[in-house]
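Propose amino acids for all 368 sites.
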């Protein structure tokens, strides 16, 4: 759960947290979180069911719901709404209840029961007037996750499993993630991996490469900095996103890399697409969550049977909607607006989805 507030530099100094850098990310203890929230008391802040992955899942859920409402809209295979679920670790506390409720209202089912003990993890996001975001992360119950029969059953029946690279920052979750990926591979569930952050790649890139090289990952998402860092780990010197995509695609069936104002680059089955950003008349308001939204568009396009370039266009369009307003979440209003656009409501081919592997079944549901 995110606590987001606009503060000045003096507020950061008031926190008196060791090694705290403005614009950086710092893990804090339960006691430190309590002290920070006490200082925030009386100030304006926004509480939200945050997280990079939840942003992606909410966008997929809302887009699939509203696109099918448009007159004449046709989803492949007669599907009306994609089933979107998430497995996570929530504490038996009001924050956990809040997270479950907010995602449920957005069409994302939280499958995991509350833990018997512990506190739901949270991130305090402090934004200063110079637009620097300082993040104070308390892992709480999210630091660990059990591989339950419910999780196994849902991964087995899913079309896509999305795994967030940030999970490797929490060692006690890795065993669960590896089991989920193994189950996905056994049952034909596609696995998508997000690089999450360049510093995360620097720390855990070798683990990411191990998954890529043994064929465990079907879809890999990164921004340009993350993609270059992945190449550097293997001693490959590439200068830009297109070159990084070329190299990464040797080890993954579908690679999508965003490159800011240059747009994005996608490659699948030796086919490459360069998709420009979707520019609106108004300048971006808040770029936080753009990558999450882009990933949602690509996954949505993939399960809808879109061509490679169309996937990138969907990612670009959903990202443009998110950065047009404050906050990282794809809203109901965004979904309603985009559902009227031809890119999202035109019928795609009723032939089988263009597969990552032509012999495999269509992608139906999204699970993470």
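Proposal:
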């Amino acid at each position: 759960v995110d606590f987001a507030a606009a503060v000045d530099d003096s507020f950061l100094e008031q926190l008196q947290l060791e090694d705290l850098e403005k614009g950086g990310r710092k893990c804090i203890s339960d006691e430190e979180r309590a002290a920070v929230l006490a200082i925030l008391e009386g100030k304006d802040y926004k509480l939200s069911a945050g997280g990079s992955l939840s942003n992606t899942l909410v966008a997929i859920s809302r887009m699939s719901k509203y696109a099918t409402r448009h007159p004449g809209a046709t989803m492949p295979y007669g599907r009306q709404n994609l089933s979107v679920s998430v497995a996570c670790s929530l504490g038996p506390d009001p924050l956990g209840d809040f997270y479950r409720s907010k995602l449920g209202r957005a069409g994302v089912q939280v499958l995991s029961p509350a833990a018997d003990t512990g506190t739901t993890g949270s991130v305090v996001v402090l934004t200063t007037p110079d637009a620097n975001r300082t993040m104070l992360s308390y892992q709480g119950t999210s630091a660990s996750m059990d591989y339950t029969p419910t999780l196994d059953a849902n991964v087995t029946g899913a079309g896509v499993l999305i795994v967030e690279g940030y999970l490797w920052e929490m060692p006690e979750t890795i065993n669960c993630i590896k089991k989920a990926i193994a189950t996905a591979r056994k049952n034909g569930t596609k696995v998508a991996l997000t690089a999450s952050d360049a510093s995360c790649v620097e720390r855990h890139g070798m683990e990411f490469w191990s998954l890529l090289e043994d064929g465990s990952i079907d879809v890999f998402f990164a921004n340009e900095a993350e993609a270059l860092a992945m190449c550097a780990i293997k001693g490959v010197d590439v200068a830009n996103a297109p070159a990084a995509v070329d190299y990464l695609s040797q080890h993954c069936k579908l690679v999508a890399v965003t490159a800011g104002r240059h747009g994005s680059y996608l490659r699948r089955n030796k086919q490459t697409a360069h998709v420009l950003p979707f520019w609106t008349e108004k300048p971006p308001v808040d770029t936080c969550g753009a990558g999450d939204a882009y990933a949602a568009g690509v996954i949505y396009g993939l399960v809808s049977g879109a061509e490679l370039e169309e996937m990138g266009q969907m990612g670009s369009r959903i990202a443009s909607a998110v950065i047009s307003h404050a906050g990282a979440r794809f809203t109901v209003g965004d979904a309603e607006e985009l559902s009227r656009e031809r890119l999202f409501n035109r019928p795609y081919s009723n032939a089988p989805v263009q597969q990552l592997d032509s012999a495999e079944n269509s992608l139906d549901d999204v699970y993470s």
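Residues 171-187 form the longest helix (17 residues). The CA atoms of residues 121 and 139 lie 5 Å apart.
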